[in-house]
Specification:
single chain, 5-stranded mixed β-sheet, oxidoreductase, alpha+beta, Jelly Rolls, 14 strands, 2 domains, 335 residues
């Protein structure tokens, strides 16, 4: 996804010292509010510091303070207030993208197969996508994370949330909101908590996550694996785009549809100019071939990714994503 988010790129041009200072000021202000028993204001300040500052827990233990504050807040009293768009309907689980004349299925294997891990290593080496069925079924997050569970764990925590159909639209925007307000969606907006380093902000949830073994195939340490969370209702969309690193994408809850394009066909997917140069202008679900005629030269690779499945996305491969159900996903970027 394009690096245009509040938490992943907004401050790239801002001096690092300013970010560290922002974190320190946030810690002091949140601590003062905490001592005054103003827990809601304290957690709001702490989370803004975590989202927008420079986290260095050894110098400024802001994560620990945020956890302590959140533990003093009252829990959620009414889980039934979750917005209907976050309610799971099994009837929508197995929908697939409408095939194009140039569609072909993504290669897949089953985690129960003896040759599965060898096929994963081969896919990583050859830089070809691979869908691994049931690869993460035993991950605790897959077994226990639901929207009521996350509401209980995160209710008063503040995160950057997308507003709009997809980030390449002109009317797309972002704002900070609590998880409780996000999942209750009283304004009936199209919301998506996308590409957020949630574990940097709420590290205790990491205990439910197992980093896929292949992320360590090149002796990569856990610190070099970037983990991003994706939480949203049905019909969230990420337009066709590329990522700068290899990605093992794990579906924790619900179902997502993928459509991918080999980077050798980049010129035929009509990338935007400028900051969105890693994003295609083509609506790959319903391509307008009169406007983008060369898209007919592209072969697209399709897959349906269910809870417990993992999809290996090689570096620079174009991929479009749509959720068919309320969805929780984790992407593991590695080298």
């Amino acid at each position: 996804m394009a690096d245009t988010k509040l938490n992943t790129g907004h401050f790239n041009e801002v001096d690092e010292n300013w970010r560290k200072l922002y974190t320190l000021v946030s810690f002091v202000q949140a601590f003062l509010m905490f001592k005054k028993n103003k827990y809601q204001k304290a957690i709001e300040i702490a989370d803004k510091g975590l989202c927008m500052g420079r986290i260095d827990e050894e110098q400024v233990p802001l994560r620990q303070l945020a956890w302590l504050i959140h533990e003093n807040l009252p829990g959620v009293s009414d889980e039934n207030s979750i917005h209907p768009s976050f309610c799971f309907e099994k009837s929508t689980q197995n929908q697939a993208l409408r095939p194009l004349t140039n569609s072909t299925p993504i290669d897949e294997c089953d985690d129960d197969d003896e040759s599965c891990f060898e096929r994963i290593l081969t896919a990583v080496h050859n830089e070809t996508p691979l869908l691994i069925r049931k690869h993460c079924l035993n991950m605790p997050a897959v077994q226990k994370w639901t929207f009521p569970f996350l509401l209980k764990e995160l209710h008063s925590r503040t995160f950057p949330v997308e507003i709009g159909t997809k980030y390449s639209d002109e009317n797309w925007s972002q704002k900070l909101m609590t998880f409780q307000n996000f999942i209750r969606n009283s304004e009936n907006e199209r919301l998506y908590l996308a590409q957020h380093r949630l574990f940097d902000q709420v590290p205790h949830l990491k205990r439910d996550v197992i980093i896929p073994d292949v992320c360590f195939a090149e002796s990569t340490s856990a610190e070099n694996v970037d983990m991003n969370m994706w939480i949203g209702p049905a019909d969230t969309v990420s337009p066709l785009h590329t990522d700068p690193r290899k990605n093992m994408f794990v579906q924790v809850h619900g179902t997502k549809l993928f459509r991918m394009v080999d980077p050798k066909d980049t010129e035929f997917v009509y990338p935007f100019d400028g900051i969105l140069s890693n994003t295609s202008q083509v609506d790959v679900e319903n391509p307008d071939l009169s406007e983008f005629p060369d898209f007919t030269k592209v072969r697209v690779y399709d897959a349906v990714v269910n809870a417990g499945d993992a999809l290996f996305i090689p570096e620079k491969w174009w991929h479009f994503v749509r959720s068919t159900t309320p969805s929780i996903s984790i992407s593991f970027w590695f080298d």
